[in-house]
């Protein structure tokens, strides 16, 4: 996983729980704790940080990932505002994710392995089939909620299918309230 994601996790932890919490999470996880945005680091190290963060915050790991995504969207989008220029609504962002946004991310971050999101669009609703060997659907859920916050839109995300419940892939249903 690219270092920029680790950077965003650190920023969210420091924003929400303070700098001491990040130090504590790094200590407990045994992770290195220092990441450059363009570097690549083991997925397992992100997993250890999330496990430790969930422990420190007193929440489950999926809840910690949703929080990282929700608060992290503004951080990630803030670093790459140009990638959101062509999107006026949350639906635009999701419609552009596989064809434009993540491919641009791969140009910026060498070796990035971005997930696949196949979308089906309805009236104020979208379904996304998320596929990635990393199985980070709670992170996707959080990023979508954070994107809703960015556009001032109240979104709900349901996991209609989920690898964590034994399905082959994840289908996220996003509904605008
Ligand atoms: C400006 C907007 C965005 C930027 C700059 C961005 C950038 C990135 C980057 C750098 C990675 C790491 C890839 C790697 O380390 O190999 C990543 C992964 C990921 N992105 Fe995005 N992303 C954006 C929007 C979104 C949105 C809106 C979603 C929500 C559906 C999303 C879902 C994910 C997920 C779930 C991953 C984790 C990797 C995986 O599941 O395999 N991203 N993104």
From TrEMBL:
InterPro entries in the record: H-NOX_domain_sf (IPR038158), Heme_NO-bd (IPR011644), NO_sig/Golgi_transp_ligand-bd (IPR024096)
Domain of life: Bacteria
GO MF annotation terms: heme binding
SUPFAM superfamilies: Ligand-binding domain in the NO signalling and Golgi transport
Annotated signal sequence range: none
Regions annotated as coiled coil: none
Residues covered by the Heme NO-binding domain: 2-159
Protein's recorded name: Heme-NO-binding protein
């Amino acid at each position: 996983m690219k270092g920029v994601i680790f950077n965003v996790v650190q920023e969210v932890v420091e924003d929400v729980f303070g700098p001491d919490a990040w130090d504590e999470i790094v200590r407990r996880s045994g992770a290195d704790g220092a990441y450059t945005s363009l570097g690549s680091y083991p997925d397992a190290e992100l997993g250890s940080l999330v496990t430790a963060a969930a422990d420190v915050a007193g929440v489950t790991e999926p809840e910690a990932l949703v929080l990282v995504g929700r608060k992290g969207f503004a951080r990630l989008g803030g670093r790459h505002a140009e990638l959101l220029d062509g999107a006026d609504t949350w639906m635009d962002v999701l419609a552009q994710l596989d064809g434009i946004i993540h491919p641009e991310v791969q140009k910026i971050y060498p070796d990035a392995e971005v997930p696949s999101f196949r979308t089906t669009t309805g009236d104020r609703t979208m379904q996304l089939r998320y596929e990635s060997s990393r199985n980070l659907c709670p992170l996707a859920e959080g990023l979508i909620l954070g994107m809703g916050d960015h556009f001032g839109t109240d979104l709900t995300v349901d996991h209609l299918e989920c690898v964590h419940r034994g399905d082959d892939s994840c289908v996220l249903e996003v509904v605008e309230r």
